[in-house]
Every structure is written in structure tokens, then in C-alpha cells.
Amino acid sequence: MDNGGLASALAAARDALSARGLKHAATFACELYAGLPSVLHERVHASPPAREAIRSTDGVLELARSYFDVSEYARAAHILEAKRGALSSVEFFLLQYARYLAGERRKEAMSTEMKVVAETTKLTAPSPPKPVNPYLRQLQEDLSTADENGQLDAFGLYLYAIVVKQIAGLAPGATSDHVQRLLWRSLQWFPWNWSAWLELAQAVQLDTASPFDVNELSATCPWMVDLFQVHVLLEQNHGSQALEVLLPLRKQFPTCQYLLAQTAAAQYHLQDFDQAHESFLALTKADPYRVDQMDLYSNVLYVKEDKSGLSSLAQHLQHVDKYRPETCCVIGNYYSLKGQHERAILYFTRALTLDPQCLSAWTLIGHEYIELRNTAAAIEVYRRAIDINAKDYRAWYGLGQAYEILELIHYSVYYYQKAAAIRPYDARMWCALGGCYEKLPTPQPGHAKMCYQRAIGNKDAECIAVYRLGRLFQKENNTEKAAEFYQLYWRDRGLTVVDSPEAASAVLFLAQYFKEKRLYTTATEWCNRLLDRQGPERDEAKAMLQTMRNLEFTPFS
Q: Please, what sign has the CA dihedral across residues 407, 409, 415, 420?
């Protein structure tokens, strides 16, 4: 398919998705279409692509769609049901989808009522079963019959997959061959439905055996396959691979804001916070009322300790839409950076009230509980995060921290191992795991060294691993190796003054090491670096300098 064909296909997909009320997928198609070079838009306008018949002669479809657009789903379903014997494929889908959404609304209403009753009566009895969509069974029966009769199109198969998934009670991330098969068939017929791709992403992981190969669709729709792969790679924190796939996509869709947002997310996952900051700045300039992924932007500002930037972002999003989970997470991050952890927890909890599946909110609440040393609460919320997404390294890492605070080091080792397996290129995971190997009742310095070497190989920006390797060799009286790593620590951090207890310890060791080697000039240089620091290290450095003077050594000047 050439660029002109791509533009025409996206224009047709946009109309087909909009006609069926698939708003999120239609919006995504519109974003892709708008991201194409303007010359392609002109070609589509000059030669409109052929479109399916999405109008009815009796006006029933238009009336049902108008009810659907104002969220009167039960009315939309009712008016279509009265015409059930002569429904077009669009009408059949809209009927079933309206019934599904009407049931989802009833489920939410029942859930709210149960919460109110529980809070007002202070129930101590076991929690009642979760409300379910009352129309699921009937939907399954109707869609199954239509599928057996060969009457389901790509959109009907997508809805059928959603219904089957809910009935099976599958948690996000769980797999079901039946669901995968339905989604696969749907995408083979109509690959432009981004909502179907997102559902498939929850069931299929790139590193997990699957009966289907999404690359089989590359011949007919390579762009959607690439977009799907970027999404899954970012879900699995493979930022560098995601950027490789994004590069040609951004050339194909040069002004697509979604792709810019994904680029910023990949840079964030790679801890390239300066580049991520630049990308998010460009995104907010081009799309100032965007809320999606602004919680990631707030994480970048948090790491950079940019209080004014985080404050501005929080205030802006509160004016745009204060009832979005992302907005609540941004505000929570702002209060966390200010050290107001209880208030931060309040906003993260609001995010979960709006979206109980908001993974960022669960992990951020856990971090706040860690700051407050409320390890029991932290463990609980981290476990909830893992229930939502078992590949969230932040939750595994948080559990490791919590059990380390409780001095249950064997548990910490297990959870840090999980985090390192998910994110093996992150030096922080290896430093944490190595530290726990040192703290075990029977320390395992060999394993600790291997972890620190892995950290060094993965850009240990803070040089924690280099220092700890020096300390381990010092404990083993391997002074040559200890001196080597302590000098690397000083060099790699680019230090000119002693700015931490670790630096003081390393410098004092190096002064003693070179003194014992009778390299008094070098030893004096290291001693002099400790003279401006308060503490016992300065006293030891002074004593060492005096000893060298008594040996009639003239200090280096």
C-alpha cells in the first residue's frame, strides 16, 4: 500500500469506526490521518475513497446513533431491537454494543450503590460479590449464534472477544486462546481498530508463546503492526527497541502527536530524562490540552526535581480536566516532591477511585507509604499493582524495598530478582539486589560482585556499584582492586570535592593506600581533599600528613 492508499484507508477506517460508536479507535485513526503529510490529505479530498453504506433509508440507524452519541445506550438498543429482523451489519453491531454499554453503566451504578451502603452501615460481613454486566450472557448467546452463522464482521468479532473475556473473568494480562482467536480474526478483516490491538496486547506478550504471529499482518497493514509492537515494548519497558520501531513511523506520520508521546515515553523508560523532557515540552506545545501520558511527564519533572514545572503542569491539568486519573497522579507527584506524602496519597487514591486499574497510581501510593515507613500498606498496594500487571518492575522493586526495611532480606532478594529479570538493563535493580546479597545472614559477596558488575555494564550513573565493589574488595583485603574501583568512583562521578560519606571513605582509603606504597606525593593529594570536610576522616588525614612530614617529606603544593 502506497502513501495515497494509506491515507484513503485511514479516512475510510475513521468513518467506519465512528459509525459504530467506537470512539477511542476512531480518535486514534483520526490522529494517524492528521499526522500524515498534508499533500496526502489533498489527494484523499480530491478522490474520496469508496465507503460502506452507513446510512439507513428508514432513519432508524441515524436515530439510534444519535441516542448512542448522547450516552442513552438503552434507548439506542431498544429502537434497533424493534427492527431486529432486518438489521444491516452496522445496525447489528450498534445494537449489541449499545446493550453492552448499557449493561456496563448498570454495573457501575450497582457498584456505587454497594459502596455507599457499605460506608453508611459500616458492614463487617464478608464483601458481596462484585457487580457484573447483566446483559453479558445474552450478548454471548447472540454473538455466538451470529458467528456460527457467518454473520459477524470484524467489529462483531471484536465485541464478541470483549464479552467472552468478561464472562471468563480474565484479569488484565491474562491469556485466553478463544479471546486471542476472535481478536486475530477481527484484525485480519479490519486491522485499523486500535481498540482491538490494545485488547490483543493484554493477552499476547512479545516474549510469550502465542498461536498467532502478528507479523503476518505486516503485508497488508505494517503500520498498525508496528504501532502494536511499540505499545507492547513500552509495556515491557523495552525503550530502546521501541525507539527503533518508532523512527520509521515518525517519518511516515511526521506530525502525529501520539507518536511523539510514545517517543517521550520510551525515553523516560530509558531514563534519558533530559531528552524525555524535551519531547514532552514539544508535545505540550503542540497539544496543550492533552491529558494522556501527562502522568509520565510529571514523573520526569519529579526526577529532575523541577517543582515550578510540576506545579505549572498540575495547575494546568486541573483546569483542563481535574477528574482524570492522570491529573490526580500529576497533583500527587507535586505534593510528593514537596514532602507532603499524606496529601499525595489522597490524590493517588482519587486516581484509583476514577480508574481502579490505574497502575501508576498503585505504584505511586506504594512509594509514598515507603517514604512514611508504612511497610504493611506499601506491600498491600504493590501486590495490587502486580495483580494488574505482573510485568510492572516498579511494584516488584517496591516490594523489595519494603521487605528490606523490615530486614527480611531473603524476601527482598526474591523481589529484586523479579525486578531485575523484567528490567535487566536498569542499574538500580542490580545495585539493590547486590546490596541485599551483602546483607544476607550469610553474605554472598560473589553474587553481590556479579550484580554490581551488571550495574556498571548498564550505565550506573550514580556510581553506586563502583563504590560498593571497592568496599567489597577492601573488606577482603584486596587493596589493589579496592584502590582501582575507588579511583574509578572518584573519576566517574567527576568529583572535585568530597561531597558524601562514601566519597570520604574512598578518599581516606586511597590516601592510606598510596602512603603504604610510599607514594607520598599522591597520598598527600588525597589527604588534602579531606581537609575541608568535617568529621573523623579529616582528623585521620591530618594525622597522616603529619606522619609523612615527620618522614621529612615535603608536601606537594
A: positive
